[in-house]
Amino acid sequence: MMNQSLRKAAKSSPVPVQASPQKAIKQRTSRTNVPKTIKHKAVKKATVARKRGASLKRRSYSKRRRTTLMVEPLQQDRQTTNADTREIYEHGYQEGRIAGGELLLEEFLPPDLIIPDLTAREAIAVGVQALRKRGIPLLDSHAVYRELENALKDKKPYAFIRLGDGELLTMAQEKVLTSDEIKQAGSFLPYAGVTIPDLRARDEMASCIQVASLVGVPLSRHPHFQPLLFAVLRAHGIEYRNLRYTSSTMNYLLDEQGLMSKLLNGRKILVIGDVAEQLGQALRDKGMEVTGIVTPVSGYSDVARVVAEASGYDYDIALVAAGVAAIPICVHLAGIGGKVTFDFGHLANRMAGLDLPDRRE
């Protein structure tokens, strides 16, 4: 029965009919019998195509050759441009040195004599020595270490804060510089936690500086560092001789001299800031006791929350890496809890093995 079905299926399926060999040969032969005129035209077209191909290759090679030959003059032009730029820069630099040094010196030289071989550098050095009486002393690293160590031993409140361009520009708002000027000069301020204008931050910062135990100040003569420092203090009516100073980079110096580890060993440490987790782990890896971590610090507006949270921890010293907000955090924690607080800055990144962030971000 099954065989019958298969046979029926086979019968019903169309089977291709094969042509006889002679017929197939005849069909193939008939296809090749092309008239001579058509063959001639085809050969002619092929010849033209080959010639065109050769012509295109020649043009392509010629174009490549011209491009190659043009590279050297372009490189020479770039080298010439770079040399011109360096020459212009050097000329401007020398002109600036003359205008900023030699011409100023010339202005104050006596008209009735000349001083052989006098340089602006020498005159400035001698002049600064004569001005030392006007100077304000800065504590060195060993003095800073002793003060922090004594405060920890005696369990006395101590707030060490540091001022940089971010803090000074914040305090300069509508006192020394306009908000527009500060926005232009301090495009990094949002990264530091301050959105201009913020006059509340300005005034709170001024109050904090007056009660801080030690103020780190910039040594740089850049317009937004030391020159702005005294302009800001005067604008806020702060008697700068009543403050106690050290360098604003003292945090790094203490670490480089091994005094930071000496200070932190055996103490209960609170770490505050956006990299507090990483810094806390780095300190633990060194065998130090980290009793609390407060993170993140979401800008200056987050100060009150951070201070409230930090106050709940048991600690001896707080390391605060929180941009501009570090100043009120340090001062308030020292005042509320009677603790030692340290404006740690980007030393936190370095000790944690992290890259320094780009302030433009």
From TrEMBL:
It comes from the Bacteria. It comes from Cohnella lupini. Residues 140-351 form the GT-D fold-like domain. Residues 1-36, 44-63 are annotated as: Disordered. Pfam families: GT-D-like (PF22882). This is GT-D fold-like domain-containing protein.
